[in-house]
Amino acid sequence: MAKKSSCHDEEDAQSDATELEENIKDTIKRNVLRY
Fold first, then answer.
1. What is the pTM (predicted TM-score) of this model?
2. What whole-number distance in Å separates Cα of residue 9 and Cα of residue 16?
């Protein structure tokens, strides 16, 4: 991923991290339900 220096970088990273966390939680939930 190319690094772009803008004042929105931190905001974008924050939302990306939140999205990632949600995806991980969903995956874990699915894995737990599978067993």
1. 0.49
2. 10
